[in-house]
Amino acid sequence: MDRQPLIKLSRISGGYEGKIVLRNVNLEIYPNDFLGIIGPNGGGKTTLIKMILGLLKPASGDIAYSLQGKRTNEISIGYLPQYNTIDKKFPISVYEVVLSGLNKQKSLFRPFTTEQHAQVQRTIARMGLQGLEKRAIGQLSGGQMQRALLGRALVSNPQAIILDEPDTYIDKQFAQKLYALLEEINRECAIILVSHDIATVLHHAKSIAFVNGTLHYHPDTQVSQEWLEEHLTSV
Ligand SMILES: Nc1ncnc2c1ncn2[C@@H]1O[C@H](COP(=O)(O)OP(=O)(O)OP(=O)(O)O)[C@@H](O)[C@H]1O
What we know:
single chain, Rossmann fold, four-stranded antiparallel β-sheet, 7 helices
């Protein structure tokens, strides 16, 4: 069995403008992992995600990616950002949002292929957004918007997806569907889920990382009452 981690962070430290936000972080993500990330506001969860996505360079330490046991410069990672970071006035339709998830795979001087458009249609159907393809994102409900963004994260069949608070603004019924869908996706794709809802993380994730200036990893969700009390009282 291939036990090479898809993503490996070794002794990572970093932050912004000389201010260190995360110190000495070690973390390995394997192909079928479902890691739940929890921690207090300002603890560094989004900073960690930015580093994994390659958007923020660590001040020190190493981030390595592997595919089928071989080290590679990058892997495909789908990202669902926090809802409040999206500009809802941006004039873009549901179809275009999902299609934009394929931008990296598109040849610079060629239009999207028929197969890529078919991939977008399949993803829109999977997200339950049929009939809303042409609707501008400013005219979507919070839940529809989250589904469009999840579609964008998934349309390229990435090796991993990172979801930052995905169940904000979605109703219970869709939340259930979302987690059932994530379970299915997890058979082919590693999942990193950031959530303030500890019950959700304990229920759906396979392992937990607590992030507050550094990272404490727990290999399963069978955490003791003491561990929870020690780490979560400040969340
Ligand atoms: N672009 C930035 N420039 C400077 N400081 C930043 C920047 N982004 C975040 N920070 C600071 O880094 C620290 C960690 O922020 P981060 O957004 O990673 O925390 P978080 O755990 O994701 O918080 P939340 O749960 O509120 O989303 C905070 O003190 C924050 O103010």
